């Protein structure tokens, strides 16, 4: 058997997960529709005043994205865990962290990226300015991978537990608060006319930190859960 | 050891409360309401410190596979959660007359709230895993990740421009009256001793529960009787 390179492994796992996701398109669409519905509920709940909605929009979209990403976390490892694929993956001679990173990236492409693509339309619904929408997209692009990564740690820790779904939110949501603050802050900074770059740089810093630490921590958590 | 810590905690509580209510003078700016600080400050400091101790024990348990340190970590968590809650609650009671609001979304308050959630998450994760070894290791990982938050709380008053006031007590000297200082230190000591006593008591029952199958437990005086 020929040995895979790290990049080869990375792309192999990503391709496999994407194919699996495409076979079960309903799962992906549910997350997206959940996101759209939650965002659309807010104007109905607080009233259709455009001034207020414009101010609320970044926060609402971010909170909805956070909840939507929680929704799909349970699926990240559980299917592979149930059919035994995960155990085989842990026996792979390459680093488990890289494999986990690939799974996180695939998860983000399936559940995070559609939200980012959908966000501008929702922004228009809330009458945001073009500039604010642009910043919102950049912030979401930087932020949603962090949500997937931190979520992966929670998903790995609660793998195979009863009531895992609610527990994972309890564990992950507090850790996602900084992302929420800086992400929503960036778009609000445009509205109030202050500097955007500080929020975006902090978000980028969080992304880099999460990129380094979370695959490793998730791999550790998986080993604890699978032993 | 437990009775010693518990008794001295009780004595310190009485002494501390006496100093804080009868000896310490009324504050010029804040009036009588500042006396809440005598509970608020020790509770907040301890809630942060216990988290660090808990994460430290959890890390020890994870790295060296020692059973006692994991038990210690899970024994500390409820006390820490209680103190974090107390510090938020007393803070709210103090905030109402001072800031005119029970709650403001200020960096320190928010991060202390996250700390409470982290404690609750730790307890919930530990409770939902049936196998104690796996529970210890999984929640240890969570505790270590969460310890990032503690320095954020501690430095939040310096990093952000917040409503919450900065520290009055510094190593180089303090801006407080002597009697106030004595009251606060006594209360701090009291809360320390209380936390130690309660955690030791809790860790004892955890040990007994987990080792209930072993011989040395069945030979204990209390069990035999």
Cα-atom Rg of chain B, whole angstroms?
20 Å
Give the total of beta strands of chain B.
2
Q: Give the total of beta strands of chain A.
A: 0
Helix content of chain A: over 70%
- Supply the number of helical segments of chain B: 9
The overall pLDDT of chain A, averaged over residues, is 84
Strand order of the largest sheet of chain B: 1-2
What does the main sheet of chain A amount to? none
Q: Compute the gyration radius of chain A: what is it?
A: 18 Å
How would a crystallographer describe the biggest sheet of chain B? 2 strands, antiparallel
Strand composition percent of chain A: under 5%
* Structural class by secondary-structure content of chain B: mainly alpha
The stretches of 5 or more residues of chain B where confidence is low (pLDDT under 50) are none
The total tally of domains of chain B equals 1
Instruction: Indicate the proportion of strand residues of chain B.
Output: under 5%
How helix-rich are the residues of chain B, as a percent range? over 70%
The span between the termini of chain B is 22 Å
**Elements of chain B, N to C (H/E):** HHHHHHEEHHH
Principal-axes geometry of chain B comes out as: globular
């Amino acid at each position: 058997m020929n040995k895979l390179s790290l990049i080869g492994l990375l792309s192999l796992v990503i391709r496999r997960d994407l194919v699996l996701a495409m076979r079960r398109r309903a799962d992906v669409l549910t997350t997206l529709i959940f996101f759209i519905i939650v965002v659309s509920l807010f104007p109905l709940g607080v009233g259709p005043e455009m001034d207020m909605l414009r101010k609320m929009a970044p926060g609402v979209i971010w909170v909805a994205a956070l909840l939507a990403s929680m929704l799909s976390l349970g699926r990240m490892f559980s299917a592979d865990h149930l059919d035994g694929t995960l155990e085989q993956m842990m026996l792979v001679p390459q680093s488990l962290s890289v494999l986990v990173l690939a799974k996180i990236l695939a998860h983000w492409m399936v559940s995070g990226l559609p939200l980012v693509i959908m966000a501008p339309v929702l922004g228009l619904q809330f009458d945001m300015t073009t500039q604010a929408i642009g910043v919102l997209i950049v912030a979401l692009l930087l932020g949603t991978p962090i949500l997937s990564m931190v979520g992966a740690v929670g998903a790995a820790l609660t793998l195979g537990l009863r009531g895992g779904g609610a527990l994972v939110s309890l564990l992950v949501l507090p850790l996602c608060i900084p992302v929420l603050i800086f992400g929503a802050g960036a778009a609000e900074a445009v509205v109030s006319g202050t500097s955007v770059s500080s929020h975006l740089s902090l978000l980028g810093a969080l992304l880099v930190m999460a990129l380094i630490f979370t695959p490793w921590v998730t791999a550790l958590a998986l080993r604890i859960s699978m032993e | 050891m437990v009775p010693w810590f518990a008794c001295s905690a009780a004595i310190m509580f009485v002494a501390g409360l006496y100093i804080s209510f009868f000896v310490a003078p009324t504050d010029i700016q804040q009036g009588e309401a500042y006396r809440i600080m005598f509970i608020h400050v020790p509770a907040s400091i301890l809630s942060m410190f216990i988290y660090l101790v808990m994460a430290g024990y959890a890390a020890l348990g994870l790295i060296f596979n020692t059973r006692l340190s994991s038990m210690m970590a899970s024994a500390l968590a409820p006390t820490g959660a209680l103190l974090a809650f107390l510090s938020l609650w007393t803070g709210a009671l103090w905030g109402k007359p001072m800031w005119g609001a029970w709650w403001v979304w200020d960096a320190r308050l928010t991060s202390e709230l996250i700390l409470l959630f982290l404690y609750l998450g730790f307890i919930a994760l530990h409770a939902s895993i049936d196998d104690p070894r796996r529970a210890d290791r999984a929640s240890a990982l969570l505790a270590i990740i969460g310890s990032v938050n503690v320095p954020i709380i501690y430095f939040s008053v310096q990093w952000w421009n917040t409503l919450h006031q900065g520290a009055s007590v510094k190593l180089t000297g303090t801006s407080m009256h002597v009697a106030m200082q004595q009251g606060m230190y006594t209360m701090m000591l009291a809360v320390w001793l209380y936390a130690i006593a309660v955690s030791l008591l809790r860790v004892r029952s955890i040990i007994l529960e987990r080792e209930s199958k072993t011989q040395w437990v069945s030979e204990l005086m209390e069990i035999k009787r």
